[in-house]
Structures are given as C-alpha cells and as structure tokens.
Amino acid sequence: MEKESKKGWGWGVLAFLTCPCHLVFIIPLLAGTALGAFLTTYKTAAFIVLGVLFALSLYRVFNKIGQDKTEGQTMDCCHPPRKEVN
User: Fold this and answer.
1) Is this structure's pTM higher than 0.85?
2) 52 lies in a domain?
3) How many domains is the chain partitioned into structurally?
4) pLDDT tens-digit profile of 51-76?
5) Considering the domain boundaries, does residue 75 fall inside one?
6) Which whole-number Å values give the CA distances from 5 to 2, 10, 16, in the listed order?
7) What is the number of other CB atoms lying within 10 angstroms of the CB of residue 50?
8) Which positions, given as ranges, span the membrane (predicted)?
9) Is position 23 within any domain?
10) Contact 46, 23 (CB under 8 A)
11) pLDDT class for 1, splitting at 50, 70, 90?
12) Rounded-to-integer distance, Cα 42 and Cα 47, Å
C-alpha cells in the first residue's frame, strides 16, 4: 500500500510542476539554459504540451484518490446480498 500512495504523490508533484500557469515563473528561472530558450521561443507549444501533461497527471491523481477510498470496501452497493433458499 505504501508504494501505491507514493505513486499518487509523484503524479501530484508532476501536476504541480506542469501546471501551465506556472510557466511564467519557470521561464525566468530557466533563463540562460537551453530549456529556457526553447520555452521562450515556443511558448504556445509549451503551454499545449504542459497543459496536456497537467490534465493527464490530475486525472491520475484523482484516480488514485478514488482507488484509495474504495480499497477497503467489500460490498457491492448496487446488488443487495441474496437470501439463501433451503
């Protein structure tokens, strides 16, 4: 179980780092690097790629949260238990 929760943290960190609204903070931090020059030149492409990656990582985070909530459940809520007929 610990390994699964760590995967959820990783997706959450990735979602935080790839949020397109953080791009205005990331570009000045990467100034003078090849990655910074690339992001400055291709801002639109960077927004699109980071937006898709952000959406994917958010989906994975919420998927992990949903799995954790239903992990301990043993009953199916849609089908009531059957009565035994003797």
Assistant:
1) no
2) yes
3) 1
4) 999 999 999 988 887 775 555 556 55
5) no
6) 5, 9, 17
7) 19
8) 12-39, 45-62
9) yes
10) yes
11) very low
12) 9
